[in-house]
Known about the structure:
- Its EC number is 3.2.2.-.
- Keywords: DNA damage, DNA repair, Hydrolase.
- By secondary structure, this protein is α+β, with helices and mostly antiparallel strands.
- The protein has helices at 10-16, 105-112, 122-129, 133-136; strands at 21-26, 29-41, 70-75, 78-85, 92-101, 146-149, 157-160, 177-180.
- The chain is built from 4 helices and 8 strands; from the N terminus they run H-E-E-E-E-E-H-H-H-E-E-E.
- Strands 1, 2, 3, 4, 5, 6, 7 and 8 form an 8-stranded antiparallel sheet that branches.
- The chain binds a DNA duplex through residues 39, 41, 48-50, 57-59, 73-78, 80, 82, 95, 97, 117, 121-124, 133, 162-165, 168, 187.
Amino acid sequence: MDLSFMKEDTLQAAQALLGKKVTTVIDGAVTSGYITETEAYLGIEDKAAHAFQGRRTKKNEMMYREYGGIYIYTMHGHHCMNFITRDAASPEGVLIRGLEPADGIEIMQERRGRMDHLTDGPGKLTKSMGIRRDPHNGLRLNQGPIMISAGKEPAAIRESKRIGIDNKEEAVDYLYRFTVCGNPYVSKDRVLPAVNNGWK
DNA sequence: TATGTGATTGGCT
DNA sequence: GCCAATCACATAG
Length: 200
């Protein structure tokens, strides 16, 4: 699909990504899900971003790529996946925090070692889909084992504060987190379930 | 349900 | 050695 919606504005891209279908083909297994939760990280001006003030290290090097790149980092032994937006001068991206499982649910259950809560958190969904840092950091969307395509349309988008950045001063209050309102496959702050899981 | 806390790993400085 | 955009479980109410 056309990825140019990720070229200009990261906050808009984070909302446009809701409902897109993410598919991986890893270790011979196909898994997929619809994006339910995203967070925008606005690079140089955003205290919560890895590239705040232009910080550039081996770890966050991938943030300085063109839109459509994939940035994966590890923390506490978990992998988190971002889709890069804009260009090399704007190290911005969107963290994928939640998916509604679609294909390959049995494989996700096997990878996770449990039957539920497969993709309702950034570390959980990468594990379910087989995504790891070493083989996948720096790849590009739709040019390898990680792909996105058209999916569903959210009936309503909810914005809220980002999760897990409580020591980043004013940045903690930015409403840069977006969820499909009423969808149960989100990591926190669930609201009352909506009909059709919040899809149109 | 909401909040708190312990576990724990990889990656940089 | 220190830090982290997490997870899972325990406890209280």
